[in-house]
Amino acid sequence: MMMPAEKSDNLFCSLAGLVDERKTSTTVDSDPSKQAVKISVRNLNFFYGHHQALFDNTIDLFANQVTAIIGPSGCGKSTHIRTYNRIFELYRNQKAQGQILLDGEDVLSPEMNLIDLRKRVGMIFQKPSPFPMTIFENVAYGLRLHYRIGRNELADRVEMALKRSALWDEVQDKLDRPGTELSGGQQQRLCIARAIAVEPEVLLMDEPSSAIDPVATAKIEDLIEALKEKYTIVLVTHNMQQAARVSDYTAFFYNGSIVEFGRTEQIFKKPAMKQTEDYITGRFG
Amino acid sequence: MHKLSTIKTTASSRDQTRADLLFRGFTALCAIGLILIVVGIFIELLMNSWPAIKKFGLSFLVSQKWNPVPGIEEFGALSSIFGTLATTAIAMLIATPMSLVIAIFLVELAPPRMAGIVGGAIELLAAVPSIIYGMWGLFVFAPFMQDHIQPFLGEVIGGPLFEGPPMGIGILTAGIILALMILPFITAVARDVFLMIPNVVKEASHGMGATTWEVTYKVVWPYCIHGIVGALFLGLGRAIGETMAITFVIGNDHSISASVFSAGTSIASTLANEFTEASEPIYLSALFELGLVLFGLTVVFQIVAQLWLRRLRKSTGGRA
After folding, report:
1. Among A75-84, A227-236, B104-113, B286-295, where is mean pLDDT lowest?
2. What CATH number corresponds to the domain at position A154?
3. What residues does B258 pair with on adjacent strands?
4. Could you give the percent of chain A with pLDDT greater than 70?
5. Mean predicted confidence (pLDDT) in A235-257
6. Is position B306 within any domain?
7. Is position B310 within any domain?
8. What is the mean pLDDT of residues A106-111?
9. What is the pLDDT of residues B20-35, one digit of tens each?
């Protein structure tokens, strides 16, 4: 997409402004070397059959930080994070090569227990995906899978998860209603509650707000801000304002490669690569 | 070269609203025609069975006497109803779990090529005419039942359900043949239902750390139950009215026995066997009333299915 230069510069300024605005309210340790690496990806290649979709992705994701993954459609953003919990393995012909270390453990190794991995690495999808059961049961789903707990504790944990996902006030009177009855934005927060109920370590969010309205999106973004205290969050988005607003680090993907990775501030204000600058200023994408 | 102006526009001859009206009228006519046919069949059955209804009253439904000898005719539908329900029940008992397991295998577990081959075979099974099932049942399957299955069941399980001489034919054999006949229908519909689940729902469930079984049982199943029940009732509808195959292997005996080895009859097979013999008007009328009973049974099953689905929908919410 081409834009008149004037307009794209404005967008660039406003994005940088967004970063500034947020930095004044939150203090983040600015020295990356001091932060713990949660996920360490080395030379990750990914194939759909014979088609290679990711090329030598290497990236470190820091614990309790929000890392945004941006880039044009089809550049491999979703493909990349779908390797972290090996959800791609549901499909034949898809395979990943390379190394993904979660706290030093090799995610792609055959010895990795898939069930345990997916308990530790939760995922939120683009389309809200409530299960065909009540609101309560939706949140209790993972708890019932992974823990043997009594009814009272189950109820407590469901309540806690719903509170942390900022949905409790809206649903506390109708926990026995089907999850599918909620609005799109509520459904997405229900999915977040479902994911965090099992106390994961990492939350993968694959364009979580692209299918919902702006007000609901704002709620999800506030939520991401609050959740990073407990979780390491990876956020795929093609909304650059969103990346600028909520993330601490940003990775720019293009054609299956990581073009640039750095602090969100730096990526949006002083991108090192021409391609990154062109993308965030709207010259293509 | 054509000039645009030489081509006449058709706008004047095409009246939008009139065309729409015609189309709507045509489709409505077809839909109403369908209702009229069903109502017509019902009225015809009722009129033809009226003499029998008048003569035997309610006892027709509870009596198992079936005596077509002219002068002392006495007809009761109970043995036919029993045979119909018993064979249908056996068929559903066998076909339901089998077809659901096959459908899940085809959708979730089988390699694509194998799913294609098995899927094709199942569709082929559905295309086999029922008379072939009947012949196969009588000449191949019934002897096999007689030599192997029935003696085995009689010895190992026994009891009132599995007693009596192994004759090969009978309620059980008919039920198993029926199961084979409805299996492809239930499987095909169930497979399509399973295929309709959005990938994201399955991914979300796997993403929570569920095993394939847990995903199937806890998420896929409730998501699909509406369609599955539909598939089952499609099978049930076929089983309850199936005629030729049953006529071959059920034994055609107007009696009721607890043992599934014994010969029996079903409404459809009674009709198929006896219409040609029905010389007396009251005999014919009794057969029509049997037909009316079968009609009523299918309607009742439909209503039960609809009510059940409505309740399910309430408990699982919108989608199911």
Report:
1. B104-113
2. 3.40.50.300
3. none
4. 87
5. 93
6. no
7. no
8. 93
9. 889 999 999 999 999 9
CATH number of B136's domain: 1.10.3720.10
Determine, yes or no, domain membership for B316.
no
CB contact under 8 A, A115 and B209: yes
* Two structure tokens written together for A171: 């649903």
Query: How many domains would you assign to chain A?
Result: 1
Q: Taking CB atoms and an 8 Å limit, are A133 and B317 in contact across chains?
A: yes
The Cα of B265 is separated from the nearest Cα of chain A by a number of Å equal to 43
Half-sphere exposure in the Cβ direction for A47 (13 Å, CA): 9
In this predicted model, what pLDDT tens digit does every residue of B253-268 receive, in sequence order?
A: 888 888 889 999 999 9
Give the domain extent around A249: 5-25+35-280
Residue-wise pLDDT for B233-251, tens only, equals 889 988 998 988 999 999 8
- For residue B276, pLDDT over 60 is answered with yes
Q: Do B209 and A116 touch (CB under 8 A)?
A: yes
Q: Which residue has the tokens 């294609």?
A: B116
A180: contact with B, CB 8 A cutoff: yes
Residue B10 is predicted with a pLDDT of 66
pLDDT of residue B123: 87
Domain assignment of residue A285, yes or no: no
Helix A151-164 / helix A184-197 crossing angle, nearest 10 deg: 130
Contact A23/B at CB under 8 A: no
Q: What is the pLDDT of residues B168-207, one digit of tens each?
A: 899 999 999 999 999 999 999 999 888 888 888 899 999 9
On whether the CB atoms of residues B187 and B298 are closer than 8 A, the answer is no
Q: What is the pLDDT of residue B5?
A: 60
Domain that holds residue B244: 83-280
Crossing angle (nearest 10°) for helices A151-164 and A135-146: 120
Cβ(A107)–Cβ(A84) below 8 Å: yes
In a domain, B218, yes or no: yes
Domain count, chain B: 1
Do residues A100 and A108 lie in contact, with contact meaning Cβ atoms separated by under 8 Å? Answer: yes
Q: Is A146 on the interface with B (CB under 8 A)?
A: yes
Q: Tell me which residues of chain A, numbers 76 to 135, contact chain B at a CB-CB cutoff of 8 Å.
A: 85, 87, 90, 92, 114-119, 122-123, 125-127, 129, 131-134
pLDDT tens track for B139-165: 999 999 999 888 889 888 888 888 888
Any CB–CB contact under 8 A between B205 and chain A? yes
Instruction: For residue A256, tell me if it sits in a domain.
Output: yes
Q: Is residue A267 part of a domain?
A: yes
- HEC string of B131-150? HHHHHHHHHHHHHHHHHHHH
Contact by Cβ (8 Å): B92, B236 = yes
- A30 in a domain, yes or no? no
Listed by number, the residues of chain B in 244-283 with a beta carbon closer than 8 Å to a beta carbon of chain A are: none
Q: Which contiguous run of DSSP H or E holds residue A52?
A: strand A51-62
What is the per-residue pLDDT for A14? Answer: 61
